[in-house]
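for the recovery benchmark. tokens below, seq after
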């Protein structure tokens, strides 16, 4: 699919999910890194559920030393999230978002404390990587169905189904740590950010690369369809 085709695809996808967006519009829900955003093709049969339907295998690609160093630095310092807000209104916006998302997540995570901690970490790690929290939640839903200890047929682990080779390339070499909630979300967000940079902001290609299916529409469509549940 060429760039024009991807733009048309993304426009179709987002029309109907974002009020006031026309097919030729320029959606702004991912500010700063998606200049070519355009559409989310409707997924037949509704929103996709279990992660097995889209289990992929990220390719282990050679990393330049500078890139490896930058990614290693990006996943370092896994201290518990400490949210900082510009003002009281920004803090209230977060609390309203957290409350609304917690209600939607009840059937997947029954303990309130666990839900709130998970959502706070998603908010922190997604914004730290320059991503939209709803996009990350949509990806988690497709990848793992919000299962902390999910393992795909390809060996990917945790909420964001991070491949074990990433622990060796940019982590401490211990794949078991990918089952830790914040570690997994940090790796997943940093990796998606890396792929977005590689693809010059093209979300369609970046999501495909994340899943190991670059250029095919099924996985990006599933993620963006599920993203609509978390806005």
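predicted aa per position
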């Amino acid at each position: 699919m060429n760039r024009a085709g991807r733009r048309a695809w993304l426009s179709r996808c987002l029309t109907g999910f974002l009020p006031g967006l026309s097919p030729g519009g320029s959606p702004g829900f991912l500010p700063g890194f998606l200049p070519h955003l355009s559409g989310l093709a409707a997924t037949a049969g509704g929103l996709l559920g279990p992660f097995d339907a889209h289990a992929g295998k990220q390719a282990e690609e050679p990393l330049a030393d500078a890139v490896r160093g930058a990614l290693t630095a990006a996943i370092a310092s896994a201290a518990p999230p400490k949210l900082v807000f510009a003002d009281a209104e920004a803090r209230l916006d977060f609390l309203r978002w957290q409350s609304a998302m917690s209600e939607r997540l009840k059937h997947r995570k029954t303990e309130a404390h666990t839900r709130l901690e998970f959502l706070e970490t998603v908010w922190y790690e997604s914004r730290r990587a320059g991503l939209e929290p709803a996009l990350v939640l949509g990806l988690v839903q497709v990848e793992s169905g919000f299962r902390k200890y999910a393992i795909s047929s390809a060996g990917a682990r945790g909420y964001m189904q991070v491949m074990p080779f990433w622990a060796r390339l940019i982590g401490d070499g211990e794949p078991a740590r990918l089952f830790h909630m914040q570690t997994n979300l940090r790796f997943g967000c940093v990796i998606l950010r890396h792929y977005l940079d590689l693809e010059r902001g093209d979300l369609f290609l970046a999501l495909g690369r994340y899943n190991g299916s670059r250029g095919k529409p099924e996985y990006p469509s599933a993620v963006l369809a599920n993203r609509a549940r978390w806005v």
